[in-house]
Amino acid sequence: MKTKLFFLFVFVSICSLLFSTIWEINLDGTGDFTSIQEGINASVDADTVIVYPGRYYENINYNGKSITVCSLEMITGDESYIATTIIDGNQQGSCVHFINEEDGAVLQGLSITNGSGTILYGDIKRLGGGIVVYTPINHPSPNVSIRNCRIFKNSAVGGGGMRIQRSNVELSGVNIYNNQAVTGGGIYVLYESTLLFDPDNLCNLYNNFSGNRLDLFVSDAVNDVDVIVDTFTVDSDFKYYAYYTHSIASTGELTIEFQNHFLDRINHDLYVSTLGDDSNDGLTPNTPLKTIAIALQRIESDSLNPKTVHVAAGTYSQALNNQIFPLAGKKCVSLIGENMENTILLNDYCEMSYLTGEDHTLLKNLTFTSLDQIMMDVINIFQCNDVGFSNIIVKDNFLDSNFSIDMYLCYEVLIDKLFVIDNYSEKGSGFSLDGGNAIIKNSVFDNNDALGPNQFVSNFYSMTDDYLELENCVFTNSDIPPFPMEENYTVQIGARPNCSPDIKISNCLFTNNYTPNGNYVVFVKSPGSVEMNNNTFTQNTSQTCPLGLFGEVEFNNNVLYNNTSDYEYEINTGNWPDITSTLNVCYSDIEGGEAAIYPGNPPNLATINWLDGNIDSDPLFLLSGEHPYQLTEFSPCVDSGTPNITGLYLPNHDLLFNQRVWDGDNNGEAIIDMGCYEFGADSVGVSNYQLPVTSSQMSNYPNPFNPSTTIYFKTTNLHESARIEIYNLKGQKVRTLPVILSDSQNRIEGSGTPNSYSVVWNGTDANNKPVSSGIYFARLRAGKGVISRKMLLLK
Fold first, then answer.
1. Is the pLDDT assigned to residue 70 strictly greater than 60?
2. How many CA atoms lie within 13 A of 788 on its CB side?
3. Which residue has the higher pLDDT, 520 or 280?
4. For residue 578, what pLDDT is reported?
5. Cα–Cα distance for residue pair 144/103, rounded to 1 Å
6. Under a CB-based contact definition with an 8 Å cutoff, are residues 416 and 443 in contact?
7. Cα–Cα dist 606/572, whole Å
8. For residues 464 and 520, what is the distance between their CA atoms, to the nearest angstrom?
9. What is the pLDDT of residues 707-741, one digit of tens each?
10. Higher per-residue confidence, 173 vs 646
11. What SS3 state is found at 82?
12. Cβ atoms of 211 and 328 closer than 8 Å
């Protein structure tokens, strides 16, 4: 049914049909083919593939051909064909691919939907949910025309509706709406591209969602981008919805011209509930919205009248109630849940949960977790001022190579009661602050591991340019398995280039961390001042010593004891001769005394001042309960700290929220204890915070194991659907082990606690085939609760 056209159509838009071969695509079999891709494969340059109405579940690729793919709208002018001729990507990739320099290619008169983006040329991110237009570097940029199409309900990491890279795209009469992405919900344009909007046949660009610019994100395009549309999302203050970012060589600007706008923003606090409805006004708890992202999209705020999105308790996910991730934080808008444990943002859909580049934002009373997927980050915040976290849990996330919380150039960061627990990554799974300054207190960084060959820092990383203050924080149970890296740490703290920040670490506990290849468990290096007061380092394992210090360090009232290493700490300038290192040690309990200081390589480049009050004695920890490293009555560390604490950076309470300076006898004045706990002190009136459910409620023995191990766990939330799921390092489920509540085989005999259970895994997959050696994760799912444990199988 190939036909030759020897006449000129009156419609200018269909001039491409002249003297070309037409390939007809019809699902009923009356055309040349029943799939669009078959027609493309048969065509040559200048051919036309006409698609008859129907839903085509395809992910078409133009394969380098300068052809036209269109619906009957092109030759009839009947716009109804646009809605009835559909390319459905079926969540199997981008719906349409222009990735082979298809100069002069045309797409016209179709609906593009349900695309999920494409992974291209080694990139790990899904690009261009609906349409991807991509040209490799140093190749000529093709010209692509997209006309009279609807692009909706697509998703990707970059460009939910469309991604354009090193290409020139003209849009005419195109409607782009209801798409979502991590960056650029509607369109993402970058690197030597041009994007042109037809000023006569107007497009529409509105109501898309993204963590970074809801409708349009442009980065380093060739020139200005003039958005000329009939309808845009809002009528002013476009930065949250559309933005142009520049490198040094880029000078383009973004302008938006529109005739109508889709959304009237609301200058009022908004309320969200899992029982809400997005047709509500959201102005009261009795008329809540349902979708958090929609509340953030609609709310309006300013620095003089900051606003809050109030989130009722419940679990918010795409599967349960059609939530949209990632959430885009908005300037001067706080996101506050009802309470930390029961207001759960469960990301079961995309590679990130929360992203913002806006100032004056606060996250409070929320849990961020994900479900069976590999993520980029959980929370990503970049180039912001005045950022706060309060009562936030980030737990049970698998990441590819980034941190669970990744902050870049953020200033005036204030964090209180942040719990980053049970996260896993190839690089670093805990917390990162690269540039800026922060005060972090009353927080826990627990069981965050770097498990892959790209490991870096597993638990906590901070390179600041002004100051970092850590107080009453716990860093525990973090591992970096042996991979061939020169240096890796569970905690690394230092300075950005050419900066000399003030670093203060007080009342912190570092315990049960493991770095077999790295020199240190905790590494602190800065040309500025470093002050470490009343910290406890115990039960850590490292190659050389648990603590490395480089710079001008004041070391007061600390305890370093019962660590597994050759030395307790090092003060040195060996690899950084530009940093002068001086260590002043006083009133500290250090196992091995002054001889426990590693001399460095080369040695004797630092000044060590071994001052008054230092001891080498067993600190007599309690070694039981939720805080096993408290001091006991006869501990030599009690009342043995600095007699005069004037000038020391110290909070007013210890890790148990007990008064920091208590009894003693120093001319009638109280004396501080060594370490992060104060023995026998009274509460200062602040409620004790409890560690959230962590790996401490789950264990396995033996570990490492071969071929089987018993998984032990405790929970008060066991559910009839309870099960233990085994995952490998890639996040793939290996096996599910049921927990039979009525069967005593799961109950630990003689435990005396009805909420203690055990399940045996014999090291096989769902087909009862033995799995290979490596790291695996046991996840207990009990109702809405999740507990995780890593296990090592060695054969």
1. yes
2. 24
3. 280
4. 63
5. 6
6. yes
7. 5
8. 20
9. 898 887 765 555 556 778 888 866 678 998 887 65
10. 173
11. helix
12. yes
Note the helical H segments in 544-656.
none
| In contact, 117 and 156? CB cutoff 8 Å | yes
Whole-angstrom Cα distance, residue 126 to residue 159? 9
Show Cβ contacts of residue 236 under 8 Å, excluding neighbours closer than 6 positions.
none
**Which tokens go with 445?**
């960084």
Q: In what order do the strands lie in the sheet with 709-714?
A: 698-701, 709-714, 756-761
Beta strands in 422-450 (DSSP E): 424-425, 431-441, 444-446, 449-450
Check if the beta carbon of residue 532 is closer than 8 Å to that of residue 556.
yes
Token readout for 758 is 């055990």
CA atoms of 68 and 40, how far apart (whole Å): 9
d(CA 404, CA 353): 10
In sequence order, what DSSP letters do the residues of 643-668 get, joined into one string?
S--TT----SB-TTSBBSB----BTT
Distance CA 98, CA 105 (A): 8
Residue-level pLDDT at 746: 44
HSE of 442, CA atoms in CB hemisphere, 13 A: 19
- Rg of the chain over Cα atoms, rounded to whole angstroms, equals 30
Contact 678, 659 (CB under 8 A): yes
Q: Collapsing DSSP states into helix, strand and coil, what is residue 468?
A: strand
List the one residue out of 283, 298, 304, 295 whose CA is nearest residue 324: 295
Look at residue 665 in the predicted model and tell me its pLDDT: 59
pLDDT at 787 (0 to 100): 65
Check residue 275 and report its DSSP letter: T
CA distances in angstroms from 198 to 169, 221, 345, listed in the order given: 11, 18, 40
> Phi/psi at 319 (nearest 5 deg)?
-70, -40
Q: Which of 758, 93, 78 is nearest to 70 (CA)?
A: 78
- What residues contact residue 533 under an 8 Å CB cut-off, 6+ apart? 504, 505, 506, 507, 554, 556, 557, 558, 648, 649, 650
Instruction: Return the amino acid letter for 458.
Output: S
Tokens of 493: 């703290």
Decide: 346 and 373 in contact? Cβ < 8 Å: no
**Which residues are within 8 A (CB) of 603 and not within 5 positions of it... i.e. 6 or more apart?**
none
Contacts by 573-580 with C-beta closer than 8 Å and gap 24+? 573/600, 573/605, 573/606, 574/600, 574/601, 574/602, 574/605, 576/525, 576/550, 577/605, 578/527, 579/525, 579/526, 579/527, 579/550, 579/551, 580/527, 580/551, 580/552
Closest CA to 338 of 367, 358, 362: 367
- What token pair was written down for 352? 């990130």
* pLDDT value for 668: 57
* CA angle centred on 215, ends 124 and 371, rounded to 5°: 45
Cα-based distances in Å from 237 to 187, 241, 733: 18, 8, 45
Laid out side by side, the sheet with 374-375 consists of 374-375, 398-399, 424-425, 449-450
Residues forming beta bridges with residue 776, ordered by sequence position: 791
pLDDT of 750 over the 90 cut = no
Question: Which has the closest alpha carbon to 161: 126, 208, 201, 196?
Answer: 208
Give residue 628's pLDDT: 87
- Residue 756 tokens read as 């203690």
Tokens of 458: 């597993």
Distance CA(187)–CA(213), nearest Å, equals 9
Structure token pair of residue 514: 């493991």
- Write the CA distances from 535 to 159, 414, 587, 630, 708, integer angstroms: 47, 21, 12, 12, 39
Which tokens belong to 590?
A: 């250090």
- State the DSSP code for 319: H
What the block records as the tokens of 520 is 């240190």
Amino acid at 323: Q
Q: How many CB atoms lie within 10 A of CB 67?
A: 26
Which residues lie closer than 8 Å to 732 by C-beta, 6 or more apart?
none
Average pLDDT over residues 29-33: 96
CA distance 24 to 546: 71
The amino acid occupying position 452 is G
Cis peptide bond N-terminal to 602, omega within 30: yes
**291: closest CA among 315, 306, 273?**
273
**C-beta atoms surrounding 400 within 10 Å:** 18
CA pair distance 234, 236, nearest whole angstrom: 6
Q: Supply 299's token pair.
A: 């709310």
